[in-house]
Amino acid sequence: MKKILISCSLVLAFSVSVFAQDEQEAKEYASTITNDDLYAHLSVLASDAMQGRETAKAGQKMAAAYIAAQFQKLGLNGPVKGGDNKGFLQEVVLYTSKPGEIYIKNGKDKISNDYASLVYYGNGQTSGEVNEEIVFAGAGTEESFSGLDVKGKGVLVVVDNTRAWRGPAQIAKEKGATNLYAINTGSDEAFSSYGSQMEHYLSGGRLSVKKPEAGTDGVFFLKPSVAASLMVSDIETIRSAAKGESKKKIKNAKVSIKVGFDVETVSSENVLGYLEGTDKKDELVVLTAHYDHVGMSDGQIYNGADDDGSGTVAVLELAEAFVKAKTDGKGPRRSILFMTVTGEEKGLLGSEYYAANPVFPLENTIVDLNIDMIGRVDPEHKDNPEYVYLVGSDRLSTELHEISEKVNSTFSNLDLDYTYNDESHPDRIYYRSDHWNFAKNNVPIIFYFNGVHEDYHQPTDTVDKINFEMLRKRAELVFYTAWVLANRDQRIVVDKLQDQTVGNN
User: Fold this and answer.
1) What are the pLDDT digits (tens) for 220-235?
2) Residues 76, 79, 85, 90: is their CA dihedral positive or negative?
């Protein structure tokens, strides 16, 4: 009974303190977020002229200039000392590792990184050719690894879709394995399509914030028949073993591998707009979205209207709403950093760079609200578009989750779907967008996401596919949440400090 009374008291105090300000004020400024304005910005940023906004390419730099100009037009401050365009641009220096000689040898057979049989994903290099033993770990679950000695060895796993390798990779890394070898397509034919897509992303160079070093682990994606050949087995036996049948027929393989890259440096930019708060200006609310996309391939432009043009234009509209509120003398009490970051598609690089080189101390950053894809409706919600996926709200702060829920019930009444917040979900979304680089520094986060759809990372992710009504409603939810967090008396309590070193981008 005592626990119940304490809980009720906390809820009452929470309700009074968080929503003491006039709800009508918040609704007034949220109304400045309009479908027309979102469309106008997105029609520029996701146009063919931006060439797919690939990191460190001309289109990305044009997009950065457009966003910086909007921030300046709104009257935000450019907080980057010595930065270009009055401090709106934070230069992000990156290393580009263009694939050199990469192969696996099994006896006399040599399998090269040709995107038809083998795709290597990673930044590491080997010191010449090195020998490696490969251990079979089934589906790559904790149970599959039980009883296996994988320290200093490679690990082969079978996963059920092209994106589901991240969980096994993290488990393998935690258990001391070197490289992951993954069968992540259902057939050789499916691998051909997958390899073609990966070639577009990787052949131009894998970018990183840190200079690649020898021995860094990576992932070898294998055509199913090639994997079977390496393990001196057949693919049916391997797949059956991954589903729980006997692994005794699959012996460890001994291979030689080489991973080589040519390393150069390139430059990209984060775009930052700063709005100073009033009486609590030393504390900071950060609103983020990534404005880069994947560029062009075979003459086709990948416009990235949803990924993440939708989040970027939401940040622009959020900035306008808060500037209008400040102009009218309505706060915010805390300062707000509106930040569109580069290099997310290349491995969360812009946010990683900011976290390592913060313009404002991370210890003064109370929250990051990150937006990545909020302009579409995924197949699971085709009959209920009034939703948004939320990830991470409860990972570091119980109070943040409660505030988020209360804000939604008060203002937006969207269906908050926590499917991707499940720590056992194979897509591991918590570790896959820019909020992660704040979370791993114990800054509480909420990630807003509409889920994956058929146009994800396709040239068909275009402006005409965007549901601007839902884009606006989701952006409003972020605004209301930021409004409460920026204006409440106390900063949110972080009650779940933990080791945040795990994860995989």
Assistant:
1) 999 999 999 999 999 9
2) negative
Distances (CA, A) of 479 to 29, 41, 371, 482, 483: 9, 18, 11, 5, 6
The number of angstroms, rounded, from the C-alpha of 296 to the middle of its chain's C-alpha atoms is: 20
Sign of CA dihedral 48, 52, 57, 63: positive
Using a 10 angstrom Cβ sphere, with 0-12 exposed, 13-18 middle and 19 or more buried, the burial of residue 255 is buried
Contacts of 114 (CB under 8 A, 6+ apart): none
Cβ pair 318, 370 in contact under 8 A: no
> Taking the chain, what is the end-to-end CA distance rounded to the nearest angstrom?
44
User: Which residues, in sequence order, are bridge partners of residue 417?
Assistant: 389
Rounded CA Rg of the chain:
24
What is the distance between the alpha carbons of residues 120 and 413, in angstroms, rounded to a whole number?
44
- Please count the residues of the chain: 505
CA distance 279 to 260: 54
In the numeric block, the tokens 């952006």 are attached to: 475
pTM of full prediction above 0.70: yes
Q: Do the strands 253-275 and 89-106 form a parallel or antiparallel pair, or are they unpaired?
A: antiparallel
